[in-house]
């Protein structure tokens, strides 16, 4: 009863996480929620670039190619952690908003958080174990050629062993953000990146373990993050990670999976996308694969910053929807769209202008540099469409609209395969490089159409502060 008693009051205390979600000015709320998340995402992106630099310092193109082949595993982690983390986090934020009208709804949050965390750990253990048992065919499926097979096998094996840890870390991050605790989420992500750099120095530069050391460093760094988030959530009045709160009741499982399945499909199709891309690009040698691995990591700097905005605003959108605050929901969407456009114009433009200088810092191979510049430009153009599509997806997730979120997730995978096959047949390597850019543009157009179709339905779901809204949120989520 303590949480129920203090929740409504806490929402009105200036400077608290609940205040930022509930009544803070939109600009101030966005700064609190998005700036820390964007900063953490940038640190993660910088780490990815640094990690490529550590591997590149070994002067072995096959090692860079191995990391590119292993990229789908990160999609696998996002798929597992996203099902429970994004679905659970969105429901937690909606319940926090609904609790302003019906405080009894706050009691459901402990069940949601416990189910999400332990569900991600169990699912991660099953997937990771199955992957280790099928390691050899999995490496072949990833598209590794003869030269890159040994390094790819090492990288994949270590990453699979840490899938439960990586999934739990991703899930816990979403839950921490669901409370509006963006600074704590930022701290956890930055802590992971810093620990990762330290482990890379030890495992790669000192012990010379190559890609296996890089994977081990990633796993251990995420273990540090899990410990930090678990400690942080112990002080939460609403959230609990205790197994005794774990439940499989439909009122919890259905809304979590309703939103989470969209993340699962998106990550699954991303894995398919990378697999097709790697297998097609492998026909052109290790040079294009190495260039792709480096260029993608550089493009992730503006991309991750945009993700910081689109992910950071999700708790605010979900809270406003659960509370029934239409004006706040629309204001948050407008401000987020302006922010995304501004970031893309400034940071994306800067990366584009200095693309050659940045690429030359990671490889001295002329063929890698030439191809890398083209790939980087294609990635930056794709980031523009992906940024606004991500904001539309966040709106659907915040409102518990599973169907349009799932359609957008499926659209990318369904469109990419025929586009990349046609691009390869008609334009060769150039067609492969630009296929993802064309796909992202089409996905954005699909998102706009879905948003126009669902706009009235979402508006009807907002009850303008009606006390009965809290119960309606849970019923709608289950449906």
Give the beta-strand count: 0
Straight-line distance between termini:
28 Å
Strand content: under 5%
Average pLDDT for all residues:
80
Biggest sheet descriptor: none
Helix count, DSSP H or I runs of 4 or more residues: 19
Whole-angstrom Rg: 22 Å
Secondary-structure element series: HHHHHHHHHHHHHHHHHHH
Which stretches are poorly predicted, pLDDT < 50 over at least 5 residues? 1-10, 464-471
Structural class, from helix and strand content?
mainly alpha
Overall tally of structural domains: 1
Q: Given the C-alpha coordinates, what overall shape results?
A: globular
The helix content is over 70%
Structure description:
Helices cover 84% and strands 0% of the residues. With 479 residues, it is mostly helical. The chain has one domain (24-478). Helix 4 runs parallel beside helix 8 (163-178). The model is unreliable at 1-10 and 464-471 (pLDDT under 50).
Structure keywords:
479 residues, mainly alpha, 84% helix
Give me the secondary-structure topology:
Elements lengths: L1 H9 L6 H6 L3 H31 L4 H38 L10 H25 L1 H7 L7 H13 L1 H16 L3 H25 L3 H24 L16 H33 L3 H27 L1 H10 L2 H28 L1 H6 L5 H33 L3 H26 L1 H33 L7 H10 L1
Structure described in brief:
With 479 residues, the protein is an all-alpha fold. It is built from 19 helices and no strands. The radius of gyration is 22 Å and the shape is globular.
